[in-house]
């Protein structure tokens, strides 16, 4: 079979279930927002700012990776800035045929200029809704507690998640520095979310071992696991995750940059898939990682040997794992499966020439 091209993969319908708003801005937008708001940046052009907001091979850890967010958050403290960045993220995703995307962020990180938590959520929902009107994409929002900030703030964000249930917020997450900040300290927040029948996911098994994944599932009730690469270190827990169909939100390029894995060829997503786990493919941070969903699939194709049929199965797993009502998910899946069955690789231009 011929090798797939980036253009082939861009034509496929896709999901992105793990993408951070504050890591997925356009660099030009950061520059324009900084000028509007009088914010001083470490660079005053795309070329000079890029090294401060895009992580390359020199990144040594998750902590190092997170430094870029100091820059992005500095210009994401107004209502209009959040509307714009959410809108642009959805538009950019739709341009590569992402049909469903769950955008996550932590509202408490956007209060430097006095916005209320409710306004912060409303701004992002407004931007996403605007994009949905213009593009063939559906979106949801996941609100994040932060591991290294107090559990009391996670409780506030859990209550905020409950307040916006059925209003665009589809889930709750725990993000931030993983080592030395165990998820179990945030159990109360997850209890509040689960008591209101809301989905939850946790960053776990990225910078810390399988014990972190164990806590996420058994102490916090996670329905999905963010990253989860270190699940490979505990076969018994891996079997449990597999048996209970708990999806893994894999972000291959990001995992290489944060040194959760050494190289793309080492990424355990190949093993996870071969063992039958439900794995999904995501960007994590489109700008910071400098990637797209299509590029992530291309890496899997080129470095880990995923075939077109296997990529189609990964895509279906993504839609199956969405935090959507069953009836909505089923209808979306029916359309996607039909589209995947009729898909053949090759550029649109060559197909037009054949006609």
UniProtKB/TrEMBL annotation:
Keywords on record: Hydrolase, Metal-binding, Nucleotide metabolism, Zinc
Residues holding Zn(2+): 18, 20, 203, 284
Keyword tRNA-binding part of the UniProt annotation: no
Enzyme class: hydrolase
Residue ranges annotated for the Adenosine deaminase domain, each copy included: 13-336
Catalytic residues (positions): 206 (proton donor)
Gene Ontology BP, a term: inosine biosynthetic process
InterPro entries according to UniProt: A_deaminase (IPR028893), A_deaminase_dom (IPR001365), Ado/ade_deaminase (IPR006330), Metal_Hydrolase (IPR032466)
GO cellular-component term (any): external side of plasma membrane
One GO MF term attached to the UniProt entry: zinc ion binding
EC number: 3.5.4.4
Cofactor note: Binds 1 zinc ion per subunit.
Gene3D superfamilies: Metal-dependent hydrolases
SUPFAM superfamilies, per the entry: Metallo-dependent hydrolases
Pfam families, per the entry: A_deaminase
Superkingdom, taxonomy of origin: Bacteria
Cofactor or coenzyme needed: Zn(2+)
Catalytic activity line of the entry: adenosine + H2O + H(+) = inosine + NH4(+); 2'-deoxyadenosine + H2O + H(+) = 2'-deoxyinosine + NH4(+)
Binding-site list for substrate: 20, 22, 176
Site annotation Important for catalytic activity: residues: 227
Family, as annotated: Belongs to the metallo-dependent hydrolases superfamily. Adenosine and AMP deaminases family. Adenosine deaminase subfamily.
Function: Catalyzes the hydrolytic deamination of adenosine and 2-deoxyadenosine.
NCBIfam families linked: aden_deam
This protein's name: Adenosine deaminase
Organism this protein belongs to: Mesoterricola sediminis
